[in-house]
Structure to design on (775 residues):
């Protein structure tokens, strides 16, 4: 029987239009805009100057703190500028702008398609290679992978979970890599298990992707300790806490970290990036991006170099249909609305989704009918109707008492509300405020 | 550059909305409405129409002319109240009684609290209980009006099974003697609407059909009806086992009176029932217990309406203290 997390969740329509679109290599951009803030934590410090010649895979940004990551050039050419560039929301972020000339790679990168199965590096060397190659979590949060593979003192991992749930509607990039590069993902998992010194690895995949389950099962069959776990299709299965619960039955405590359960979760695409970093010496400079939406004549799964402007991927302006009213970076449940279509891709971009006005229209909100559907839908066991009311009344202490800080912003409550109340808008705001208050308190 | 919509996630919404839910409740009530029209003919049609139109009209006029805000009558919740109240009246009730009850339900029980979602007590039940205390004779007159095709009406007795039992016991008979005198009081008759009662409670089967529809459409969860029915069964069973001459058996108690109509359509009212599953269990068990106690020891033959209204009053408290389980464990 398929497993799933223990409470809440919703069932939005799949709409995996691009399931059968094989990954295609997207042409190199004319100019690449490589952001220094592609990971959670402090932005990297530019390590090149205007006029420098760079090669594909060359280090161009170095970490500026513990929580930070390397950034590499995704193209070869000349540095045209080191300046702030607007990201998808329009915020200026320090970036390195490179005029693309040819495609000359760093010589130490293995560009052959051969699968390297023998893992020669030991644990610490694996983690340091992952750090060198600037690998970050590709599931959305962009958490630097080398930090996640180094549990803090006093905590130990006992299993690794590869997240192949891809529970958001429309998204298919993880599905495609599981279909096309399954053994490399399994090897990525084996490498991370070695780094974590654990013997058990799980690959969680939802039961609406039978072909991917089959593909990964075949690939994993030669690797002891790795098991494909079939999950019942339900959003937000790919949420870190939900996935750990679905696969192991354990629950991350409130305010706790996933490592408190002994589980470390990495996305399938991250596992592939880890494989490429450790076995092929290839930094994280490209990723698979699903470009989809019913309003598009055709959907694609593109392998895109980091720093390619969205406008080029979408073929703007002609490639954007007249009726596309919203462009989302990511999925329809948790993705971000794009304000600036000239924004460049970053490492963790997984999709560009185009919705029509009708598809994304918000209902006119009416009275709460106290149906309790938001309570049933919340995967964290919170009471969204109550948090919404307390948020409106500005009652910060009661919001804290009712665990508003545990909200994972999955949007299930708002998706399900029959009265069309913008629950998450208000809860998100209250959560930010409450966490600020909690942090400002003197530590006990 | 073109104008893109910029708003926070989620960017899509499920298909549910208030009007669709209320429409589903009306669809679920339609078997009971059809049965009542079949047996009681024009009187039932009249009650249902007066109920629906008065409730919707009252809500519209109050919102438009007294509260001076946009009317929400199109969400159909007022129509549901009107139909429910109609199905809770004796089929012979005159139209003006229905009219008064509908005004009380919407005007007093719903709009004075702030409209849909704000009221503490189930509006249809407030309307019914108001009528029961104001017009006790009309509200307990179970004479049977002419049915649509006349024929099947003969089998319907003029009193409800519960009132027959109550009166019989009051006159010194035992339950066995009462049942022996009234061969119509078989379980089969109750299932297929051969007994007297409110317009909506005469056929258990029609109500069960509506229940199944609501479950399939996920309008309600089975928790509240299941716990009420279970509690009624267990509590009446305990009394029955202790003295079968004074107390009716558990199946009789499930199939008679407003237990089904109340537990499926009234106790599950979103607004006036608790939010968390644990709260719903306590609320539903309370309704089941009070219903049996009123039936066996109260002066009214039926206790469903009062039981639900009493437990409605505990809902704010249950919401405060019966919290859902948090994911990472409650504090």
């Amino acid at each position: 029987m398929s497993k799933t997390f223990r409470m809440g969740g919703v069932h939005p329509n799949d709409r995996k239009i691009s399931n059968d679109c094989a990954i295609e290599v997207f042409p190199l951009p004319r100019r690449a805009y490589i952001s220094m803030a592609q990971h959670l934590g402090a932005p990297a410090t530019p390590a090149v100057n205007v006029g420098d010649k760079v090669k594909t895979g060359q280090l161009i940004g170095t970490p500026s703190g513990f929580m930070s990551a390397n950034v590499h050039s995704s193209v070869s050419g000349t540095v045209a500028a080191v300046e702030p560039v607007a990201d998808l929301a329009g915020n200026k972020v320090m970036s390195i702008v490179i005029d693309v000339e040819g495609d000359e790679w760093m010589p130490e990168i293995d560009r052959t398609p051969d699968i390297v199965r023998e893992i020669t590096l030991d644990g610490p060397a694996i983690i340091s290679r992952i750090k060198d190659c600037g690998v970050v979590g590709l599931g959305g949060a962009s958490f630097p992978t080398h930090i996640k593979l180094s549990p803090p003192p006093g905590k130990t991992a006992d299993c690794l979970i590869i997240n192949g749930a891809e529970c958001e509607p429309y998204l298919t990039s993880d599905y495609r890599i599981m279909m096309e590069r399954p053994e490399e993902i399994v090897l990525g998992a084996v490498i991370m298990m070695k780094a974590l010194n654990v013997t058990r690895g799980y690959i969680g995949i939802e039961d609406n992707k039978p072909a991917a389950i089959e593909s990964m099962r075949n690939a994993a069959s030669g690797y002891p300790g790795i098991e494909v776990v079939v999950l019942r299709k339900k959003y937000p299965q790919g949420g870190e806490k939900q996935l750990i619960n679905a696969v192991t039955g354990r629950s991350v405590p409130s305010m706790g970290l996933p490592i408190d359960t002994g589980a470390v979760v990495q996305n399938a695409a991250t596992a592939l990036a880890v494989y490429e970093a450790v076995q092929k010496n290839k930094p994280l400079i490209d990723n698979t991006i699903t470009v989809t939406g019913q309003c598009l004549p055709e959907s694609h799964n593109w392998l895109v170099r980091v720093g390619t402007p969205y406008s080029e991927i979408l073929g703007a302006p002609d490639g954007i249909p007249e009726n596309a009213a919203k462009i989302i970076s990511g999925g329809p449940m948790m993705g971000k609305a794009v304000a600036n279509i000239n924004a460049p891709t970053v490492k963790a971009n997984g999709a560009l989704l185009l919705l029509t006005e009708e598809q994304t229209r918000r209902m006119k909100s009416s009275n709460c009918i106290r149906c309790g559907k938001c309570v049933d839908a919340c995967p964290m066991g919170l009471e969204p109707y109550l948090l919404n009311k307390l948020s409106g009344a500005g009652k910060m202490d009661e919001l804290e008492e009712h665990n508003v800080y545990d909200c994972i912003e999955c949007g299930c409550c708002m998706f399900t509300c029959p009265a069309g109340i913008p629950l998450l808008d208000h809860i998100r705001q209250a959560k930010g405020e409450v966490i600020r208050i909690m942090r400002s308190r003197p530590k006990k | 550059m073109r104008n893109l919509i910029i708003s926070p996630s989620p960017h899509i919404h499920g298909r549910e909305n208030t009007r669709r839910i209320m429409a589903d409740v009306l669809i679920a009530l339609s078997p009971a409405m059809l049965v009542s029209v079949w047996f009681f003919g024009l009187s039932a049609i009249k009650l249902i129409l007066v109920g629906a139109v008065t409730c919707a009209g009252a809500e519209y006029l109050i919102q438009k002319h007294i509260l001076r805000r946009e009317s929400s009558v199109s969400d159909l919740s007022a129509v549901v109240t009107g139909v429910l109240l109609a199905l809770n009246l004796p089929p012979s009730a005159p139209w003006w009684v229905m009219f008064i009850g509908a005004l009380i339900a919407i005007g007093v029980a719903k709009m004075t609290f702030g409209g849909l979602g704000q009221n503490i007590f189930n509006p249809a039940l407030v309307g019914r209980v108001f009528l029961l205390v104001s017009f006790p004779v009309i509200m307990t007159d179970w004479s049977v009006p002419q049915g649509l095709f006349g024929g099947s009406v003969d089998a319907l007795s003029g009193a409800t099974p519960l009132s027959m039992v109550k009166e019989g016991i009051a006159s010194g008979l035992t339950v066995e003697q009462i049942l022996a005198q009234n061969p119509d009081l078989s379980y089969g008759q109750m299932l297929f609407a051969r007994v007297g009662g409110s317009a909506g409670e005469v056929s258990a089967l029609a109500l069960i059909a509506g229940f199944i529809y609501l479950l399939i459409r996920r309008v309600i969860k089975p928790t509240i009806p299941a716990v009420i029915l279970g509690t009624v069964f267990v509590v009446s069973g305990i009394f029955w086992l202790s003295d079968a001459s004074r107390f009716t058996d558990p199946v009789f108690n499930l199939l008679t009176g407003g237990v089904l109509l109340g537990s499926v359509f009234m106790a599950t009212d979103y607004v006036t029932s608790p939010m968390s599953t644990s709260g719903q269990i306590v609320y539903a068990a309370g309704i089941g217990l009070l219903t049996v106690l009123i039936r066996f020891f109260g002066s009214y033959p039926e206790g469903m309406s009062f039981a639900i209204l009493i437990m409605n009053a505990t809902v704010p408290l249950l919401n405060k203290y019966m919290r859902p389980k948090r994911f990472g464990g409650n504090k």
In short: Chain B has two domains: 18-139, 156-321. Chain B is about 60% helix and 0% strand. Chain B touches chain A through 39 residues (CB under 8 Å). The CA atoms of residues 31 and 206 of chain B lie 5 Å apart.
